[in-house]
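Model the whole thing, not chain by chain.
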Amino acid sequence: MSTKTLPERGDTHEQGTAGPQQNTGRRRFAVRGTARGRQARAAWLLAAPFLALFAAFMLLPVVWSLLMGLTDTKSADLRTPLNVSFVGFDNYVRLFEDPQFFTALRNTAVFVLVALPLTLAAGLAAAVALDRGIRRFRAVFRVGFYLPVITSIVAVAVVWKTVLEPRAGLANLVLGWFGIDGPAWLADTRFALPVMIVMAVWRNLGTVMIIMLAGLQSVPQSLMEAAELDGAGPWQRFWRVTFPLLRPALLLTAVTTGIGYLQFFDEPFVMTDGGPLDSTLSATLYAYKQFGNGNYEMASAAGYVIFVLIVALTVLQFRVLRDKD
Amino acid sequence: MSTLSTLRRPQPGTDRALRRRRIRQNWGRPWLYIPLVGALLLMIAPFLWMLSGSFKPEADIRRVPPVLIPTAPTTANYGELFSTLDFTSMFANSVIVAVAVTAGNLIFCSMLGYALAKLEFRGQRAVFLLVMGTLMIPGLVTFVPLYVLVANMQLTGSLLGLILPFLATPFGVFLMRQFISTLPDELIDAARVDGCRELAIFAKIILPLTKPALATLGIITFLGSWNNFLWPLVVAQNESQYTLPVGLALASSGQSFTRFGILLAGAMVVLLPVMIVFLLFQRQFVAGIATTGLK
């Protein structure tokens, strides 16, 4: 953020003993017509359209949702959202008494804890391989690895659903070449969630790769050569020189990917509807189902539980990954 | 080019060492291509499957075990997609929503981004923290009240209901502010000294310099809106407001699932525009992600 003091019109006095006091005085009583006042007015003019939309479609719903989670909306309909009774934390108590919500939380936790490290590792590996290892066709690899990121999740889900079709799908066709009788994938409680973890890694490693590639290109070549001269091997060079420089980029991708993964929704919604036997029911899908059943207060409460989890994960990631100095 | 300079320079060592060096300069580490090509195949296999499936006649689709290359390629799936599912109007809806949302974000986010990056005003820090603080709030938290709000505004029956809530997003502000704060202050000071008005500085000096970031934000927003699924699914009340992902998802959950030639053709139609946008603007996109990702 710029904290620089800007030159003001009529500000002609030299830097003398009286200068600083006059300056503070002027800063405090910024009024119309002064440079600072004009700047502030311009700033608010520029900010106003965004803030108006933001207040209406972000702040208002956030506060409203918080209140909704603390009320019983059963008596009211959508058109009279204020006609409700305040019930404190009853909805949250009900939420945590629901075994299905626990299943949803557990699935989400497994998904995040497995898929997030895998995505980061795969993206980083792809970036290192593309940056240092090869010279030809780099753009082809980059586009190929990034393609899943830009693909609509619904299109992805539809394609994977047909790939995983037990009889006429690509996955079991390929397994058949090796004499393996493939499972029913999405219809099998043991495979449905792992399949979605693989899909998530497949879909998101491109983002990590692109950001890491940019990070790797900013690692000065001279630093690497100096480390090499000092006798550092490839592994040492990576962990002692490259990795620390990549840490801010890694933190950013870990945080944004983590926020996305905790809201894991589209794949189970399109592919399994949370099944079989709730094995792919995510916390967000649970909330959505509550919404669909008209339990708006439960949906809001579940949304806030996910929010708390996101904050916790983000804080944890900052603790683990931020620069030590 | 690099080969020539290698040849000219006197090389110590044998011919073999020389050749190895030349390969290295042209290709890097040749053995790395094997795992990378394998990984690339894994990454694009679903796309190849989609492409082949979309041109498969009904007989090939039902065949067990499946065939990879259609025996008699046909465009019937695409034809049926547009005739029975009304993909034309879904396509138009997707374009309208994505363009409107992108335009809104480019305008509003760059305006606030500039104010936060380069202007001084009371409450600046509060505005910044407030906007950035909401980046972590999951969509589902605002989802229910947002739905009530839009329903009460009588917007569930129009495309406006799909557009309005996404016109101004915190991520865009973050991206624009990051980029604009890297522009030199001297430029703005000089314009002020020359008597340029504040809003004119933004329009005439900052905006043209911000093109790379605008391109990035534009592509990200367009892709996000094009692929957005949950909100249009809930808000769109009748088929005339369906966007492509909604139409595709509803088609895939219905009884027509067994006919996945049509679904794969639909997935192709959803994917093609974003692929074209991405391939055209790849460079700006990557550069933009890099500048925001590393700050």
